[in-house]
Amino acid sequence: MISSTKLAHSIIRELIECGVNQFVLSPGSRNAPLAIALHEAASKNLIDLHVKIDERGAAFFALGMAKAANNYVAVICTSGTAAANFQPAALEAFHSQSKLIIITADRPARLRKTGANQTTDQVGIYQSISTHDFATSIAIRPFLTNGPIHLNPQFDEPLLSAESANWLDGLQINAIVDQVQHGSKLNLTDGVLIIGHDRGGFSVAQVMSFAQKLNWPIIAEDPISFPNSVVHASLFLTDEEIRSKLAPDTAIVIGRTTLSRSTNSFVATAKKVIVIDPRSALVDTARTADQILTALPIEVTSTGGQNLIWESAATAAAAALEDIQWSEQRVITELIDLIPDESAIYIGSSRPVRDIEAFAHPRSGVSVFANRGLAGIDGNISTVFGVAENFETTFAILGDLTYLHDISALINKSTRNVRLYVIDNNGGGIFSTLSQANVEGFEQLFGTPHNLDLVRVTQGFGVESSLVTNLVELHSAISKPINGLDVVIIKTPDRAQNAVLLKELTYKVSKAVRIGINLA
Questions:
Q1: What is the biggest distance separating any 2 CA atoms in the chain, rounded to whole angstroms?
Q2: Residue 378 contacts residue 55 (beta carbons within 8 Å)
Q3: What is the SS3 assignment for 70?
Q4: d(CA 56, CA 379)
Q5: What's this model's pTM, rounded to 2 decimal places?
Q6: Least buried of 110, 122, 312, 481, by fewest C-beta within 10 Å?
Q7: 88-112 pLDDT, tens per residue?
Q8: CATH number, residue 223
């Protein structure tokens, strides 16, 4: 083993030379050599250093930055349970193939399984993410090939020692450049393009270019990024006869479709299914389709899709939803319509992301983020704060349980311009729309009402907060300038009412589309 200080210097220096300039640190003892090295690098303006006291939040904060910048971000902790608190973000990073460098400071290997304080086996702690366990300098660059990595350096006593003060001199920064993957050629007839919320890791521009070559109808789980997508498709595709009428020769799925059973049922009606997702080579290795590609095709020929009938369906669906009453769905449409261009928006898991897919009007002009790798509700506020580091203004739409799950993130609140819109229906709204909605003990087991005044809870963290209960108040909140962090709590009708309204709206759309495409 080399001295702990020298080992820390070698790690930080190499990461900087690989183009890593964002580091997130949770305080601890065993990671002290890294902390001091990071402070020295930050003092020379070589990196940005963010200190977060909670490891779980720190990891999600780093993940948000990595997603927004599409560059590696390092998150660092001490040994023991601190490393375990990185696990949720590590899983999300793996399943979304995000560029997260996880650094867990460790005791020397000789202390493992000896009862030594704060010592556990940290090798392989993140399951599918490879651990690089080392006690001396190693080359890190070869590991930075997309997706998360885990570095587990062993630091021996003494943790601090006198080393060269000029260890950062002569840096040669040569940033990691993504390797462009060239796909095959596709010769197709008519079909439909289905775009999963995270686009399989491809950029919006890349997917748009591919879509233009196809000239097919587009079903997008994220309509905020694709203005030409078919509005309200996930609603009218719940109707089996409509699905049958619109069944394509070919369905191309980019990424994963994780939001609506109706969309997946529609994909199953296609004579041929083509999946395009790089993760099928590493993460989703058991995925099936008639053809699986890991890169967007470089050349596409197509006879075009049945655009006219899809346009008729979309027009009829939109007309059926012109005047929705005050509800979670109306809140979603207003927020998405009025969020300004050039900003970022983060969408919380569970009900908000599904309502946006179903009810939001397709648009463009904003950068959209979500944790759709595993679609968890944990760490969402921290992820928002990480995303916000890359934008002038950032918005988020979260459910109340998602908000409460990561409320401790407000302790290390963002200093950027961030507004969180929290839809408060006093519990887990999505469960009222699922099969367990009427089981005995539903409220205790699934509804989980919190019965909290979220405005007062938020203000208790020293964060500005306001309450919205109707459309006039919502418009007033949206128009208010953003200066730092504020939280808007939006009180909506109860969960049972919302479930009934969803059924009514879905039926209304189905009926209108049947008429619009001559099925009635």
A1: 82
A2: no
A3: coil
A4: 7
A5: 0.95
A6: 481
A7: 999 999 999 999 999 999 999 999 9
A8: 3.40.50.1220
